[in-house]
Recover the amino acids of this structure.
């Protein structure tokens, strides 16, 4: 009874402490993953790759976090290719050739995705141009008729 | 500012909203789970798999030579495949050549499935680990590829073949492929 009364003012602090402890725990490894690769460099590349590849069965997840059987297959394939000494580029190319650009969360810049990558910047430049024309026009009008801006 | 110009200025937001509605409408109609296959127009991926009903024999991509063929990816655990099966049976009855790919399945369960629902396949490749299916970019069942007489992939239907899909997409494509065979 007394213990709870003494602790009560600190309850928020204790809750925060518990939360930070949980958050500080090492990040969970990929669902259903095999033991890490013996070579730490390969393992790092593996972890990086599976973060970037989309699971087509549950499309908003990458294959690192997807429990779908297809994601398991894709992870195994990536491991096999890494152990065979293939480059990240070759591995991504392998997946894209089969599943299309959509399999990568970050689509490559090419003819088809050009608008996707540069479209926003084109729009931004257009917007700035429109804004500038309006400002310049107004400035000219005000120069011609100084009273108008203060009427 | 002239009256016409003012009126045009008022029309601008309406036009913008109209465009947004149109984009949204297309987005709603579009099913993101149907990812177009990059394999269309390419020759069938090389594979060599044991046959489901004759494990001693192997099936390779050469099976697609000669005439237009459907390559249907299925599994006994796939509920949608049961619904699709009736359509496959009727297609086979009309003389369409269908090759099966039994995906991530157990042989005994697959054979029981065929025993129960009938066998529309000319031959079935058995891919319990789904390795060959990966070369075809398979990401679920059922999926059906349409191959031309030279073993080139000409179409892919994701999801079950329904009577509607058969009438609207499959039969026209097969007809085109058969007539192009005469020319090629």
């Amino acid at each position: 009874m007394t213990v709870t009364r003494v602790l009560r003012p600190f309850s928020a602090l204790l809750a925060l402490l518990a939360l930070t402890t949980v958050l500080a725990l090492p990040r969970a490894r990929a669902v259903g993953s095999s033991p890490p690769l013996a070579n730490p460099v390969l393992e790092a590349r593996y972890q990086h790759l599976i973060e970037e590849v989309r699971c087509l069965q549950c499309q908003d997840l990458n294959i690192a976090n997807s429990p779908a059987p297809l994601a398991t297959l894709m992870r195994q394939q990536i491991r096999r290719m890494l152990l065979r000494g293939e480059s990240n580029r070759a591995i991504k190319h392998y997946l894209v050739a089969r599943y299309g650009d959509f399999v990568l969360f970050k689509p490559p810049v090419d003819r088809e995705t050009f608008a996707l990558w540069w479209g926003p910047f084109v729009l931004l430049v257009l917007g700035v141009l429109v804004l500038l024309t309006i400002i310049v026009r107004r400035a000219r009008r005000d120069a011609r008729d100084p009273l108008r801006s203060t009427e | 500012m002239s009256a016409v110009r003012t009126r045009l200025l008022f029309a601008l937001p309406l036009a913008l909203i109209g465009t947004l509605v149109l984009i949204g409408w297309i987005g709603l109609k579009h099913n993101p789970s149907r990812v177009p296959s990059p394999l269309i127009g390419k020759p069938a991926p090389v594979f060599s798999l044991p046959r489901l009903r004759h494990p001693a024999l192997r099936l390779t991509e050469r099976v697609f030579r000669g005439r237009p063929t459907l390559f249907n990816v299925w599994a006994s655990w796939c509920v949608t495949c049961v619904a699709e099966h009736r359509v496959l049976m009727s297609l086979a009855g009309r003389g369409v050549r269908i090759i099966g790919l039994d995906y991530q399945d157990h042989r005994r369960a697959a054979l029981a499935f065929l025993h129960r629902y009938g066998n529309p396949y000319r031959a079935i490749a058995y891919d319990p680990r789904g390795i060959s299916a990966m070369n075809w970019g398979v990401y679920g069942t059922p999926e059906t590829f349409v191959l031309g007489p030279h073993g080139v992939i000409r179409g892919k239907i994701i999801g079950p073949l329904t009577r509607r899909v058969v009438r609207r997409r499959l039969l026209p494509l097969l007809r085109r492929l058969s007539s192009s065979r005469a020319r090629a």
